[in-house]
Amino acid sequence: MDKLLEILHELRPELDYAHNDSLIDGGHLDSFDIVTLVGELNDAFDIEIGVEDLIPENFNSVAAMWSLIQRLREQV
């Protein structure tokens, strides 16, 4: 999870990811951030985030993103 937090802090260093569970719903991350984030996560974790996974619930919190990463790693 350290790598995920590193990627997020590079993307938006001003956000408190540990205590925020509405990153998308609260407007803290926008569509451009998500496009960048998806590319970074795909490369860093050797996964493929598909269009079907691009829902706010998968990106609203660090825990949700980590769950998505773990699920996609298991599918490989």
Major sheet attributes: none
CATH architecture: Orthogonal Bundle
Poorly predicted ranges (pLDDT <50, ≥5 residues)?
Answer: none
CATH topology: Non-ribosomal Peptide Synthetase Peptidyl Carrier Protein, Chain A
- End-to-end span in angstroms? 19 Å
**What is the mean pLDDT?**
95
**Could you spell the SSE succession in H and E letters?**
HHH
CATH class: Mainly Alpha
Q: State which percent range the strand residues make up.
A: under 5%
Provide an overview of this structure:
The protein is mainly α and 76 residues long. The protein has a single domain (2-11, 22-75), classed as Non-ribosomal Peptide Synthetase Peptidyl Carrier Protein, Chain A. The chain is 51% helix and 0% strand. It has three helices and no strands.
